[in-house]
Amino acid sequence: MPRKLRELLRDLEKAGFRNRGGKGSHRNFEHPSGARITISGKLGDDAKLYQEREVRQKIHEAAR
């Protein structure tokens, strides 16, 4: 069962990413290390596989 977008956003915030806002259903997150990611969709939507993969990759990248 795919995770919800709200869960991915929560993971990003726990990892230190800050929401820089966005336009429409897009949310831009930035980490103090310089890592950036854009997530699109409504909070209750199922996350797509590529979104889950990208979130994991960016969190790992920011932790270095």
Automatic annotation (TrEMBL):
Keywords: Endonuclease, Hydrolase, Nuclease, RNA-binding, Stress response, Toxin-antitoxin system. The keyword GTP-binding does not apply. Residues 15-39 are annotated as: Disordered. InterPro entries: HicA_mRNA_interferase, HicA_sf. Belongs to the HicA mRNA interferase family. This is YcfA-like protein. It comes from Thiorhodovibrio winogradskyi. The lineage of its organism: Bacteria, Pseudomonadati, Pseudomonadota, Gammaproteobacteria, Chromatiales.
